[in-house]
Specification:
CATH superfamily of the largest domain in chain A: PurM-like C-terminal domain
Oligomer: homodimer
Largest interface: A-B, 77 and 77 residues
Distance between the termini of chain A: 33 Å
CATH architecture of the largest domain in chain A: Alpha-Beta Complex
Strand content of chain A: 25-35%
């Protein structure tokens, strides 16, 4: 952890508790800077804040799950670039009354997420705040970093995994019910698609983005960056088993925070899975602009996407 | 800025305002990840949170100064490693009612600080919160990264610049007075000693740390990491002109957040400045442990250091 917000005494006790929880997921911490391991390809980086009351609620998920989710959502940006994971720096803000054990629980989740993705906790910071939040900066390497731009008319539009699980969990919690365990896991412990992202980059993916705002919203980002139009066939969407009716496909298309990958491939691509992650062709890239959701060939209205800041 | 916390509409208006304020200090933003420019030596990184009410108060300094200070304090960790500045990622948390103009003011300060240090705003994130805070992750490169450890018995103990200015400002504000303009600037717009840090690394500095917690506290970190004792002669401390009496040296030794460099050099080193920054030999490295503040050869009590989390 960086020394610049940390004094002696009780602060170091908190850090010792965190280091114990991280175990072999911690890099060599304790200096002003960390030396980032070198590797092939380009270094890519992204930073993301997950905040209590905005991105998660602690009456919905545990501190360990909040840590896992905070790290996984940031690591998902590396997946979208087709990058491997070097590690992350975690700036944790916690209430003054938080115990060392609570800080350790949060950071255990962070460490488990980055460990599962093949990286380390390289450094961090600890600050007092009114609520829990974590700003996670991820560092990785990509031989051919993928962007949102690059999709070409005629490419197929694809998605990894199954959609709508995180939204199903949120809808349950908002209704006062505990979601099904698979929906709870989709929200609390999303899987950054690192191995799939690397493989898809090698296979010639032309553009990629991770689904944080939701399929409809993120498809719009990809379309705008690539200066193309996207047609999505709602009947082709791979649905998470917890997605409720009556219109399951539209529910999934409007759900955010699945952290699956949306990507475009040359028309000839036809693989159905990678590393046990299912792949589904859900549409096509057209000349033009914007995103059309189609049912039986007819356009249907776009569900609105998440907007945390509003 | 990263897309993962940003939806369409008003959010993009805010980001456009920020990009306009950053001007040519912004890298190529707008994708999930930034590609970090390559360079010689090792990549070094650090992350630091600056929060309203903990690290700054907006009745003391402007939003632009808060942004400058947040970035400068993080960049100071690169200086302490003897690194040049590649750039930074800025995760900004702002109240929901913050205007695009206010976000732009904060980020203009961030951009000015990293621009003055020779780098770019490479990426960022924007989240709603109850108060302002910024988590700044800095990336730089060092041919021979300096650490807190490495000081050897017999080395000289040195410091850049003048100490106590930031504390003088805080003491004035807490007393309800506006500080002298030089003290205000020391707190609001500290100068990360990037060029000095690079040069000192080349000159054979054996250990280095930046003064964020205060001389007494940070000297303790360097001593512990290097497994040595440090003797500091209070009469040798270079004092900021705004430091008040009666005991000016002890006031400066207990002041935090000057963001000067504390470093150890072979005994033969004798330069008095680098790049217009004064250098002062303030003590010596001994075998042993801990930090002794000496006046006329006699030990005096250590002032307590900052502890934001307490």
């Amino acid at each position: 952890m960086s020394g610049s917000s940390l004094g002696p005494g009780a602060e170091f006790d908190r850090i010792r508790a965190i280091l114990a929880a991280l175990g072999n997921r911690a890099g060599e911490l304790g200096d002003d800077c960390v030396i980032v391991p070198d590797g092939p390809g380009s270094l890519v980086a992204s930073t993301d804040t997950s905040a209590e009351g905005v991105h998660f609620r602690l009456d919905w998920i545990s501190l360990e799950e909040a840590g896992y989710r905070s790290a996984a959502s940031a690591l998902s940006d590396l997946a979208a670039a087709g990058a491997t994971v070097t590690g992350l720096l975690a700036a944790l803000a916690a209430p003054r009354k938080a115990s060392g054990e609570q800080l350790a629980q949060f950071m255990k989740g962070v460490g488990d997420a980055v460990g599962a993705a093949g990286g380390l906790v390289l450094g961090g910071d600890l600050t007092a705040a009114d609520a829990w939040s974590a700003t996670i900066t991820v560092l990785g390497r990509a031989r051919r970093p993928l962007r949102r731009r690059g999709a070409r008319a005629g490419d197929g539009l694809w998605v990894t995994g199954r959609l709508g699980g995180a939204r199903a969990a949120v809808v349950s919690w908002l209704a006062g019910a505990e979601p099904e365990s698979e929906a709870h896991a989709a929200f609390a412990r999303p899987s950054p698609r690192i191995a799939a992202g690397v493989w898809l980059a090698e296979q010639g993916a032309t553009a990629m983005i991770d689904l944080s705002d939701g399929l409809a919203g993120d498809a719009g980002h990809l379309a705008a960056a690539s200066d193309v139009g996207l047609e999505i066939d709602l009947a082709k969407l791979p649905l998470h088993p917890s997605v409720p009716g009556p219109d399951r496909a539209l529910f999934a298309a409007g759900g955010g925070e699945d952290y699956e990958l949306l990507f475009t491939m040359p028309d000839s691509f036809s693989e159905q899975s990678v590393a046990e992650v299912p792949l589904a062709r859900i549409g096509v890239v057209r000349e033009g602009t914007g995103v059309q959701l189609l049912r039986d060939g007819k356009a249907v209205g776009l569900p609105s996407s998440y907007n945390h800041f509003a």
